[in-house]
């Protein structure tokens, strides 16, 4: 590894000078194995994808270096504790470990972490009206949206697209007519199918945690295939989380590979050759360079597209890096002196709403009282609009919304915090999502191996902690296969 000043690096980078011509490369002081070893692997990004990849490779005897821009592991897994009293905490980033998340659950079991089943939605607050989920379903109540079906909160849009399912005989061999849905948005498709505007609006609200972009940005092909697989989110989805905080999972991975992680090292340039990759990164005010016979890039494309890439990857990969969509997402965590949402006659503990907060729920079900935290999930245009406000005004708006749902909220208010992921310098967006023209093959392209370069991250599989781990394990298997292990 070698060092030059950051200013000199930037000046030379702007002139198009390759890193290798700036200074000779020395790697022996970074990797512990011999320079000629084919078991040296450089990984970029210590989110769950990079961590799980590093863990599996270390277990197989590889010499791994893991570069992380932040000073902590976990990426979008972010548990806040300091702002709150009485040992309370809140998940301000990735939150759920569903019942089908086998990879996440496998490593939780390996690290003796307990997965807690979250409370299901028990309240609805839309267009100023309150509904108990039980009464809503038992009495077949109807939401005040044109086209909504009695007793049905989620998937009211499904009936308008069901005829598309009849055209699908093999999901791996889709007819041209279905594939062409890749070129239009969800909103365009629903309008074409004569769905009322209210159905488009309701879809926007119910899909807030599944897609962080607007229906006029979201891909119609992925929308139809999601319904075809019956994989959409609903009020009965088992949304578990890790008891004591989700950040325990990346921290346990990080403990296992601690001697391989280099924190506070944002990558600025990647140059891949046929046999060697060179990576330049910021290191204490200077630019350092590491070379390796193999690399795993586990950083979000929202950040990778800002990194200089010499010897570019194939055109379709570069397009994917440039265009893959990341939406808008903001989470509020508000601490109250008492858990008024538990009282008889309350709207509920876990509420679906069409307000800018979208989801408002009691997060402290496993934590000591009497204080408690209400957590929210805001996405797409609502997050963008709130993001234009100052932090104080964002919280003021959130408090106003909560007070409209529970009149006693202000009586018990103590403090709160907000995380807007589009302001995060190492993320600059939500998780990945399929935009128009991107659903057909973008994930396959994103995760495809390019010579000695491998790719991992939720954007290559599914947007979840489980998806990130799947991708990290998959990349580790690719590396092992490439070197004959």
Q: What brief labels describe this structure?
A:
485 residues; alpha/beta; FAD/NAD(P)-binding domain; Polyamine Oxidase, Chain A, domain 2; 3 domains; five-stranded mixed β-sheet; 18 helices; 30% helix
Percent range of helical residues: 25-40%
Could you tell me the mean pLDDT?
A: 90
Strand order of the largest sheet: 9-8-19-20-21-18-22
Head-to-tail CA distance between termini:
27 Å
Low-confidence stretches: 9-29
Radius of gyration of CA atoms, rounded to a whole number: 24 Å
CATH fold label of the largest domain: FAD/NAD(P)-binding domain
Tell me what the CATH architecture of the largest domain is.
3-Layer(bba) Sandwich
Task: Give the class-level CATH name of the largest domain.
Answer: Alpha Beta
Task: Characterise this structure.
The protein has 485 residues and is of the alpha/beta class. It has three domains: 2-74 and 247-324 and 434-482, FAD/NAD(P)-binding domain, CATH 3.50.50; 79-120 and 238-245 and 328-423, Polyamine Oxidase, Chain A, domain 2; 143-228. It has 18 helices and 24 strands. The strands form six sheets. It has a seven-stranded mixed β-sheet with strand order 9-8-19-20-21-18-22. The protein has a five-stranded mixed β-sheet with strand order 1-14-13-12-16. Strands 11-3-2-15-24 form a five-stranded parallel β-sheet, with helices on one face. Helix 3 packs parallel to helix 11 (248-256), helix 3 (48-59) packs parallel to helix 18 and helix 4 crosses helix 18 (465-482). The relative contact order is 0.19.
